[in-house]
């Protein structure tokens, strides 16, 4: 649910009118082209994708490295949270550029740089003057090829990861997220959050050897994409990439993620919370994987709008008219493998949780029976398109939006295909998707409510994206 | 109308995904030139950043009123008024109808109410310029003040204190408690969102009265950026001329009471880790030359969420104490998911602060001692020539990233006008090259110190922590994995018994559930 990247990506794209309208006139609605900037993709001999997106950010580039490994890849027991921990280790330096030297170079450029990990991928990003491109590539390619850290550094960084866990531990959403995954999934690695189970986070200092294996498996050119957005010449980027990344050796590892068996019956569990709070209702229905060819996920994205956007009748009823809940959210976030359509509500009065749950269920049932009015669907599509168009406002936001699709499919063109599908979704597609996925046997419900004396912050966990700092 | 009103509510809202990319902005244009207050003689001030090629239009309509305008017993009046307007209907349209019209445009009307100013922030694609303009101006100039919108907003704000702040956000609670400790008897002491009892005592008539008094022609700046159509600014001026003339008098700010030693507030609540904030008022703002010297010193010491700051490198990097440790020379709120500062939270008086992200409770006092000791070393020793040069160079480049989109650029422009200085980032570019190392170290000695500090600690077992503090006994670090570095072990010994300038009379324990009640 808390995958902010998904939110960026959940927004539509369109090239909209470019002429200035006279004051007081409505502009004609936009055209149909999807991603408005040229995307130049070159695959190097070792499999590394080099992607250049010229964008009007004079003198600036966003330099992203997308590694298609996230907490989904943590297949061994006891290793949850490792992809994220490894992301932290990537800042511990190499022989040529030890940590302090690496940081001093980026400091000199005045760069904004960080990294984050999600269920499906890890992204390293630098925003800096375009004149620094070659310097950035020199140090970035070096750490992807030659990362080196001591056992002691490794152990110390585990403390920072525990600190990251701790900073969120008072927030009920962290616990709810951990609980619903752990309950809804049996075998798939989406069972754990990206930051991992607390017991595994605490055991991280003992996993040095595994960290070397993790690097060896996933930090390989065929599993990564280099994405540069902004003031960049695509040809020069490829030339520099060949020089700096050309010697990076391909890997051979193929991960096998355990498939999740269909859920046989509905599940329900509860969490006691030590701090006074309104109760939370958190519902997950098993949903589809991301696809840029199948209609299911785009249809569910529109379901999310039709039920849970601020203009949706259900939202208006529960939040604005009856004022039964003060927070309401529902969406299926894009994942490489089938994940959940998650719904969250914070209910103002404890005794009204059952009513809120039944009202949400009734709205879902209605969607399964009654085709949605065509004009409501059109408004939802318009919302998605304009949200996206308005979100593409900096080199960094364009890079973030594309990185999402690169991570899901390996292909930035996926964004075009997905938004072409949005355009095709019909009221009947919406109803079919609702019927297919909103089934009681595939449902998991978690409630959280205050109980004096409950353990603080336990069991804890984190949302979908966690960052190096 | 996304629920982005209250900075304190942001962490929760972010998890719910309602923040997304914030308001929609457009890419920065080289050609952008600020045009401020072109209508000489007009009481209505505008702040414009035209960018004709941009398909987007950003609005920041700012009123000079904030939490400091809240009457005693009605704390929260300003924010509740703003929220009921931004998330409410117009004379002609219900809130539901406004929401339904904004929705297909993916346009937003947000309000942000801070201590001294309240800013309504909006963005729209120019395809919908006129329709959006009509909604925005109706919402601001003909607010519905519907009982239902009022009640919902009040419930949200009460929950933002009772549940979100006291319960879910220990770091936010630490920062709020720092204000509470640092600003005794000062209008800055209260939360921007008031108190629970204050909010509950406010009536719809109170809102209308505050609106009539503060939403006036002389009290507003009309900020617009981007590809707005010809004629829109004239319409804006004509429409806002329907507001009452004049402006209410500015609330006088007393000088903050001096702190005496280390004044500690321990906030007791169930919490798996301990959040700590340290701070003290300073006498400089962006209007002052010394601010720019402190900007360099602070970046060296604790630049927000980077690996540049000494604090983070010593506390997190060397010792794995927590996720990060930063410092600030003015009120700072991170803008959404970026690392850049939120704009439009200006203050006539500022403070210096240190933010220690949650540490395991066993290391709380070690962390407090280490941060205090580092601050003392900064004051005593200053920066080296090398650190000064590297940090200045960094800031000269880094500051160019602060206003990449036109809405943020407009925000900075409004802030610069508030402080009566030139465009802030231009001023940074102008001041920093002139600085010498001696200027920076002298400014540090003039404005920073480690003797009189306010401290807020959010923790379980506050009584035990208080006892340890009072005992003055060493508080050694507990490593998750012991270090083998001789240098670190030696320094650890110095830190664990570093003498804190504790004010024993001003060592309070308060329960989280009692804070900001009235």
Topology:
The complex is a heterodimer of chains A (469) and B (518).
Chain A lengths: L3 H6 L30 E4 L5 E6 L5 E8 L14 H8 L9 H11 L2 E6 L4 E8 L3 H14 L4 H17 L4 H13 L13 H6 L4 H11 L5 E7 L3 H12 L21 E7 L6 E7 L9 H13 L4 H9 L3 E8 L7 E8 L5 H17 L4 H18 L3 H15 L4 H11 L2 H11 L5 E8 L15 E2 L2
Parallel strand pairs in A: 2-6, 7-11
Antiparallel strand pairs in A: 1-2, 3-5, 3-6, 4-5, 4-12, 8-10, 8-11, 9-10
Helix pairs in contact in A: 4-9, 10-16, 12-16
Chain B lengths: L9 H7 L18 E2 L8 E6 L5 E8 L13 H10 L8 H8 L5 E6 L4 E8 L3 H13 L5 H22 L1 H13 L13 H6 L2 H11 L5 E7 L5 H9 L21 E7 L5 E9 L6 H14 L7 H8 L7 E4 L21 E10 L4 H18 L3 H14 L7 H14 L4 H8 L5 H11 L5 E7 L2 H10 L14 H11 L5 E10 L7
Helix pairs in contact in B: 2-5, 2-8, 4-9, 10-13, 10-16
List key phrases describing it.
heterodimer, A: 469 residues, alpha+beta, five-stranded mixed β-sheet, 16 helices, disordered N terminus, B: 518 residues
How would you describe this structure to a colleague?
- The complex is a heterodimer of chains A (469) and B (518).
- Chain A has 469 residues and is an alpha+beta fold.
- Helices cover 41% and strands 17% of the residues of chain A.
- Chain A has 16 helices and twelve strands.
- In chain A, the strands form two sheets. A seven-stranded mixed sheet of chain A has the order 1-2-6-3-5-4-12, with helices on both faces. Chain A has a five-stranded mixed sheet with strand order 7-11-8-10-9, with helices on both faces.
- In chain A, helix 4 runs parallel beside helix 9, helix 10 crosses helix 16 (427-437) and helix 12 packs across helix 16.
- Chain A is globular, with a radius of gyration of 23 Å.
- Chain A starts with a helix and ends with a strand.
- Chain B has 518 residues and is an alpha+beta fold.
- Helices cover 40% and strands 16% of the residues of chain B.
- Chain B is built from 18 helices and twelve strands.
- Chain B has helices at residues 10-16, 77-86, 95-102, 129-141, 147-168, 170-182, 196-201, 204-214, 232-240, 289-302, 310-317, 364-381, 385-398, 406-419, 424-431, 437-447, 462-471, 486-496, and strands at 35-36, 45-50, 56-63, 108-113, 118-125, 220-226, 262-268, 274-282, 325-328, 350-359, 453-459, 502-511.
- In chain B, strands 1-2-6-3-5-4 form a six-stranded mixed sheet, with helices on both faces.
- The radius of gyration of chain B is 23 Å and the shape is globular.
């Amino acid at each position: 649910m808390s995958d902010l990247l998904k939110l960026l990506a959940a927004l539509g794209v369109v090239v909209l009118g470019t002429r200035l309208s006279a004051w007081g006139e409505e502009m004609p609605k936009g055209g149909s082209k999807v991603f408005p900037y040229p995307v130049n993709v070159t695959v190097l001999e070792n499999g590394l994708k080099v992607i250049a997106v010229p964008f009007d950010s004079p003198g600036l580039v966003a330099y992203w490295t997308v590694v298609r490994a996230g907490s989904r890849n943590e297949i061994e027991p006891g290793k949850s949270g490792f992809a994220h921990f490894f992301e932290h280790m990537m800042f511990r330096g190499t022989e040529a550029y030890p940590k302090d030297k690496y940081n001093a170079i980026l400091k000199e450029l005045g760069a904004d740089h960080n990294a984050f990990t999600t269920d499906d991928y890890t992204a390293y990003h630098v925003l800096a003057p375009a004149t620094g491109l070659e310097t950035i590539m020199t140090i970035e390619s070096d750490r992807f090829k030659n990362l080196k850290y001591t056992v002691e550094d490794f152990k110390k960084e585990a403390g920072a990861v525990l600190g990251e866990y701790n900073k969120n531990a008072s927030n009920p959403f962290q616990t709810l997220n951990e609980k619903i995954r752990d309950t809804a999934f049996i075998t798939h690695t989406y069972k754990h959050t990206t930051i991992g189970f607390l017991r595994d986070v605490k055991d991280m200092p003992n996993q040095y050897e595994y960290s070397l294996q993790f690097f060896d498996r996933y930090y390989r050119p065929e599993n990564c994409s280099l994405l540069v957005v902004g003031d960049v010449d695509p040809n020069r980027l490829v030339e520099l990439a060949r020089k700096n990344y050309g010697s990076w050796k391909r890997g051979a590892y193929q991960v096998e993620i355990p498939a999740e068996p269909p859920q046989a019956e509905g599940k329900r569990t509860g969490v006691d919370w030590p701090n006074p709070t309104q109760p939370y209702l958190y519902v997950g229905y098993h949903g589809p994987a991301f696809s840029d060819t199948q209609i299911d996920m785009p249809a569910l994205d529109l379901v999310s709008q039709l039920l849970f956007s601020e203009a949706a009748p259900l939202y208006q009823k529960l939040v604005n008219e009856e004022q039964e809940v003060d927070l309401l959210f529902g969406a299926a976030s894009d994942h490489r493998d089938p994940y959940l359509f998650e719904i969250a509500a914070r209910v103002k009065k404890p005794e009204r949780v059952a009513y809120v749950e039944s009202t949400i269920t009734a709205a879902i049932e209605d969607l399964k029976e009654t085709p949605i009015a065509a004009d409501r669907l059109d408004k939802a599509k318009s919302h998605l398109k304009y949200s996206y168009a308005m979100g593409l406002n900096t080199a960094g936001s364009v890079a973030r939006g594309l990185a999402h699709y690169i991570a899901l499919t390996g292909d930035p063109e996926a964004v075009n295909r997905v938004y072409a599908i949005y355009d095709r979704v019909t009221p009947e597609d919406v109803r079919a998707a609702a019927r297919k996925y909103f089934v009681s046997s595939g449902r998991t419900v978690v409630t959280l409510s205050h109980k004096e004396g409950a353990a603080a912050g336990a069991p804890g966990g984190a949302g979908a994206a966690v960052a190096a700092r | 109308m996304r629920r982005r009103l209250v900075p304190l509510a942001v962490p929760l809202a972010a998890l719910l995904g309602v923040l997304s990319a914030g308001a929609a902005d457009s890419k920065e244009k080289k050609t952008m030139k600020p045009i401020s207050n072109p209508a000489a003689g007009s009481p209505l001030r505008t702040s414009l950043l035209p960018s004709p090629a941009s398909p987007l239009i950003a609005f920041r309509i700012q009123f000079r009123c904030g939490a400091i305008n809240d009457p005693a017993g009605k704390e929260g009046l300003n924010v509740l008024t703003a929220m009921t307007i931004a998330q409410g209907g117009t004379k002609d349209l219900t809130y539901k109808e406004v929401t339904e019209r904004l929705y297909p445009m993916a346009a937003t009307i947000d309000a942000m109410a801070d201590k001294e100013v309240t800013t309504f922030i909006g963005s729209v694609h120019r395809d919908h310029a006129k329709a959006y303009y009509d909604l925005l101006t109706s919402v601001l100039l003909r607010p519905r003040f519907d009982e239902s919108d009022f009640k919902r907003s009040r419930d949200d704000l009460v929950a933002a204190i009772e549940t979100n702040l006291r319960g879910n956000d220990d770091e936010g609670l630490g920062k709020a408690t720092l204000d509470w400790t640092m600003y005794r008897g000062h209008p800055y002491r209260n939360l921007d969102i008031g108190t629970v009892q204050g909010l509950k005592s406010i009536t719809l008539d109170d809102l209308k009265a505050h609106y009539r008094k503060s939403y006036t022609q002389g009290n507003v700046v009309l900020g617009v950026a981007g590809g707005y159509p010809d004629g829109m600014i004239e319409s804006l001026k004509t429409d806002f001329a329907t507001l009452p003339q004049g402006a209410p008098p500015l609330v006088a700010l007393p000088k903050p009471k001096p702190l005496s030693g280390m004044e500690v507030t321990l906030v007791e609540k169930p919490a798996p880790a301990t959040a700590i904030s340290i701070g003290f008022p300073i006498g400089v703002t962006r209007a002052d030359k010394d601010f720019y010297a402190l900007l360099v010193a602070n970046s060296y010491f604790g630049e927000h969420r980077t690996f540049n700051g000494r604090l983070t490198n010593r506390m997190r990097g060397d010792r794995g104490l927590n996720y990060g440790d930063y410092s600030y020379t003015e009120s700072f709120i991170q803008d959404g998911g970026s690392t850049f500062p939120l704009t439009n939270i200006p203050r006539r008086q500022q403070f210096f602060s240190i933010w220690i992200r949650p540490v395991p409770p066993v290391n709380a006092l070690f962390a407090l001692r280490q941060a205090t000791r580092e601050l003392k070393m900064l004051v005593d020793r200053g920066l080296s020539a090398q650190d000064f040069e590297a940090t200045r160079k960094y800031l000269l480049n880094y500051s160019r990233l602060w206003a990449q989109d036109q809405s943020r650029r407009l925000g900075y422009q409004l802030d610069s006008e508030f402080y009566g200085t030139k465009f802030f980032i231009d001023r940074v570019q102008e001041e920093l090259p002139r600085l010498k190392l001696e200027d920076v170290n002298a400014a540090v000695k003039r404005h920073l110190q480690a003797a009189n500090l306010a401290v807020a600690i959010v923790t379980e077992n506050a009584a035990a922590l208080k006892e340890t503090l009072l005992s003055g006994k060493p508080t050694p670090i507990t490593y998750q994995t012991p270090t083998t570095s001789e240098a670190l072990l030696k320094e650890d010994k110095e830190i664990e018994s570093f003498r804190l300038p504790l004010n024993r009379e001003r060592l309070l324990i308060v329960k989280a559930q009692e804070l900001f009640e009235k």
